[in-house]
Amino acid sequence: MSFIRNNTRSIKLGSVTIGGGAPVSVQTMTNTDTRDVAATVAQIGRTVAAGAEIVRLAVLDERAADCLAEIVPESSVPLVADIHFDWRLAVRALEAGVDGIRINPGNIGGADKVRRVAEAAGARGAVIRVGVNSGSMEKEVLARHGGHPTAEAMVESALDKVRLLEETGFRNIKVALKGSNVMNTVAAVRLWAEASDIPQHLGVTEAGDAFSGTVKSSVGLGLMLAEGFGDTVRVSLTAPPEEEARTAWEILRAVGLRSRGVEFISCPTCGRCEGPLFQLAAEVRQRLGDVKAPLKVAVMGCIVNGPGEAKEADAGIALGRESGLVFVRGRQVEKVPFDRLVDVLEQEVRNL
Amino acid sequence: MSFIRNNTRSIKLGSVTIGGGAPVSVQTMTNTDTRDVAATVAQIGRTVAAGAEIVRLAVLDERAADCLAEIVPESSVPLVADIHFDWRLAVRALEAGVDGIRINPGNIGGADKVRRVAEAAGARGAVIRVGVNSGSMEKEVLARHGGHPTAEAMVESALDKVRLLEETGFRNIKVALKGSNVMNTVAAVRLWAEASDIPQHLGVTEAGDAFSGTVKSSVGLGLMLAEGFGDTVRVSLTAPPEEEARTAWEILRAVGLRSRGVEFISCPTCGRCEGPLFQLAAEVRQRLGDVKAPLKVAVMGCIVNGPGEAKEADAGIALGRESGLVFVRGRQVEKVPFDRLVDVLEQEVRNL
Predict the structure, then answer these.
(1) Are A106 and A160 in contact (CB under 8 A)?
(2) What SS3 class is residue A347?
(3) Pairing state of beta strands B232-234 and B25-29?
């Protein structure tokens, strides 16, 4: 199944193109103290290994901004500085070499300061993300919308902020409209696409811990992406940023937009299952975690649905009573006892 | 945000109404040996506590079918017997008192056997679910669709099977079209709604382990539910069935259809966070796990988005440097040191 992507203008964030039909890129945000260069660089490396293509860092003070100069050369992906309240930190972060900043033009100190930040970003070809977050909306905008961060309020707030930037002639902009309410975020993202061709950074903010955050982000991003919205995504989880990147990739794969690494298919098990399926599935995932090729591997518990699924996959196993069948590209290749199943499957996958 | 539900006929599965605009019900399936009555009854109890409203059990042989007579009276929710190949097991399960059976009318032994099963179900007012699974499609149907379980192939297979049942005069039917490919399942569900008013049981089958299964089910069910499809849902995970029920509820909440228990909002933490947020969030979830009222509780790490989110929630905390602010229904009620924060929040939530 294919679908039509919403048409947006194309911008460059360092080496990554965002919008204009470019692949939807995966972002995350470090949770280290940015002033701890070693810890931050190490975390960036882990998130990149997990699939992050853009990494954002919180910049709370001048020391953090200055540390960016040491962090940027160590990162293999473009970095974005997240800044609130202080326009000088934004300029300092840009001077330190980040490819983008995330600011709220409404709390940076007036039109003159917004101009100074836009000039600094423009001189370096950097991107400015205008972020609207349902948890930190302007009182005046909220007041015009019954006191609540509705979709209309979020879009109005973003348009106001974009106008501040565009009045300075700056166009290298992306926006993010993030609400903690999934369907509200979806509504805001749809509305934005009617109002502007500025590319969208998608996310469901403050989504919750790994469990509820994964569900809310998957439902929300899934819906928005399947409707053709979104040029770059971040999954927010109260969990390490590597998990955010992994989850984002899993969502992109589920909607059929991009894939990376092995897709694992396995069944929930039922009374029909006569083998140690949970164990085998976990072992297969662990053994094949380093495979980067976009392969489909099935681990199935019975002979009702097992062989069918295993045949549709690139490789797979279907459990019987004391042994399992190994399939490769639709053909049954071997019948193997449980204790050798994972070895044989791994070998077959690596041969592909 | 509200949306229009797809119009389906209404059927009764025991005490649960499915279709015709009834609330989307949550199902799961046991993975115990159905012949182990004690283990099965205990697992049903745990899944019901986690929110299951209908529970399915695999029935592999006559002993399993007979055990249903002991299991049914111990279950507070309607039970469905999952049967393959043997029409006599279906009749036996119905005699044992289940409110529904899941069969594949195509592999039960011909039109005459289908009639016998439909008569037995009709006599007891039981529901028959026609299940189409991309992993176990008829060779003839596949052949007509290029050898692959496409959306069209799945719908054709379901229509063939429904016809077999309806020819006997039986109407108490629901269907499930499940593929391991998310977008393919979505396409099949959309097509079905154009072809028939028979209510749909939604699921993404063989979705994978708890991680990828949660993402795929959330994306798939989220999309289908948000488009107005689906009358009952099952999340399939290679994980205990209680997790399936919890995940289903989280999805229903995310799309704004139903809610149950506390909704936890928390932030992903970033360099701005100065307190032990992961720990506090986990502790809050654990302490409030027994609360059934649909409340929204926020646990936020900083003063940028924290107070805004905490105010939108029924109760919440926002961390500062060494203490946190506690909010209740939009009002800041107290500033509390970290070590007493969860106690104070719990007390405030229980007062609500």
Answers:
(1) yes
(2) helix
(3) parallel
Q: Which residues are paired to A324 by β-bridges?
A: A319, A336
Q: What's the distance, Cα to Cα, between the start and end of chain B in Å? A: 25
Instruction: Tell me the C-alpha distance between B306 and B340, whole Å.
Output: 18
| Torsion sign (Cα): A121, A105, A163, A231 | positive
Distance from CA of A31 to the nearest CA of B (A): 4
Q: What is the pLDDT along chain A (352 residues), one digit of tens a residue?
A: 455 788 899 999 999 999 999 999 999 999 999 999 999 999 999 999 999 999 999 999 999 999 999 999 999 999 999 998 899 999 999 999 999 999 887 778 788 898 899 999 999 999 999 988 887 788 889 899 998 889 999 999 999 989 989 998 999 999 999 876 888 899 999 999 999 999 999 998 766 677 888 999 999 999 999 999 999 999 988 889 999 999 999 999 999 999 888 888 777 767 677 778 888 888 888 888 788 788 888 888 877 777 777 777 899 888 888 888 898 988 888 898 988 989 999 999 898 8
Q: How far apart are CA B17 and CA B193, in angstroms?
A: 19
Q: What are the start-end ranges of the E strands in A152-195?
A: 173-178
Within 10 angstroms of residue A258's Cβ, the number of other Cβ atoms is 17
d(CA B219, nearest CA chain A) in Å: 5
Residue B144's pLDDT is 94
Q: What is the DSSP letter of A262?
A: P
- Residue for token digits 């070895």? A343
Contact at CB, B29 and A216, closer than 8 angstroms: no
Instruction: Report the run of H or E that residue B162 belongs to, with start and end.
Output: helix B151-166
State the residue for tokens 């004391």.
Answer: A322
Distance CA A223, CA B247 (A): 17
Identify the three-state secondary structure at position B183: helix
- Listed residue (A23, A18, A28) closest to A58, CA to CA: A28
Q: So what's the pLDDT on residue A331?
A: 86
Evaluate whether A302 touches A280 at the Cβ level (below 8 Å). no
Residue A291 is encoded by which pair of tokens? 């495979």
- Would the CB atoms of B305 and A135 count as touching at under 8 Å? yes
AA letter at A107: N
pLDDT tens digits, one per residue of B236-269: 888 899 999 999 999 999 999 998 888 887 777 6
ipTM: 0.85
- Cα distance between residue B76 and residue B54, in whole Å: 9
The CA distance from B317 to A226, in Å, is 34
Answer yes or no: do B29 and A270 touch at CB < 8 A: yes
Q: pLDDT confidence of B288, banded at 50, 70, 90? A: confident
Identity of the residue in B1, B246, B270 whose CB atom sits nearest the CB atom of A29: B270
Q: Cα–Cα distance between B16 and A341 in angstroms, integer? A: 42
Q: Nearest CA of chain B to the CA of A317: how many Å?
A: 13
Torsion angle (degrees, nearest 10) of CA A340, A344, A349, A350: 110
**How many CB atoms are closer than 10 A to CB B171?**
14
Name beta bridge partners: B331.
Answer: B328
Matching residue, tokens 């927010």: A236
> How far apart are the C-alpha atoms of B23 and B230, rounded to whole Å?
10
Contact yes or no for A212 and B264 at CB 8 A: yes
For B185, phi and psi rounded to 5 degrees? -65, -45
